[in-house]
Amino acid sequence: ATVRRTLHGPMDLSPSALRLQHQLGATGYRALQTAFMLIKDAPWPAHIRNFAWDLTADALPCGQGIQGVHTSACIFCCHRGAKTSHGTMPRDTVQHLTAECGYLEPLRTLFRDLWSTLQWPATAPSFAQFLVYGTAPRAGHDGSLTAIRGAVLAAVRWARNVITAPTHRPVPPSAMRRL
């Protein structure tokens, strides 16, 4: 019912969605309703669409919100032993996942390389803003943007699912390039 209300009427951004927009430097970047419409209209499988809904609404289970995870630290950074400049493990948040997590750097590089290869007129947008809000200024065909975003969302979702599986086998970052 919440999604239906979002798609059919005016909606104020939730405090969580506002915080995410601020953290990503995307204040006023895209109305949440428009971002949800892009997801609704995308030809992705339901599991990718649901992952995108959660990411855009800043409702993605992170840290201890993931079944079987008993830490609030980033699940990827924990396996890599990565620490912040303060010597602590980074918190698992949508903002960290999309904008900062070193584990996803191969996907960020792939995104920039694809953008450059397609020779779209604008410079590549922020990976985090593109992944969360699904838009890019004056870029190529909307279908291409949707396909790239869907592929990246699928890779991130797959890696999170593998790493939180009961066997806890971390996916090497190089494997993310092969998707």
Written account of the structure:
The chain has 179 residues and is an all-alpha fold. The longest helix has 22 residues, at 142-163. The protein has helices at residues 2-8, 15-23, 32-41, 46-56, 75-80, 94-100, 105-118, 127-133, 142-163, 173-177. Mean pLDDT is 74; it is low at 4-10. It starts with a helix and ends with a helix.
Our estimate of the beta-strand percent is: under 5%
Q: Say how many strands there are.
A: 0
**What is the alpha-carbon Rg in Å?**
16 Å
Q: What portion of residues is helical?
A: 40-55%
Q: How far apart are the termini?
A: 34 Å
Given as residue ranges, the uncertain stretches (5+ residues, pLDDT < 50) are: 4-10
- Major sheet summary line: none
Put the structure in a nutshell:
By secondary structure, this protein is mainly alpha-helical. It has helices spanning 2-8, 15-23, 32-41, 46-56, 75-80, 94-100, 105-118, 127-133, 142-163, 173-177. α4 crosses α9 (142-163) and α6 packs across α8.
Secondary structure blueprint with pairings:
Elements: H1 2-8, H2 15-23, H3 32-41, H4 46-56, H5 75-80, H6 94-100, H7 105-118, H8 127-133, H9 142-163, H10 173-177
Helix pairs in contact: 3-4, 4-9, 6-8
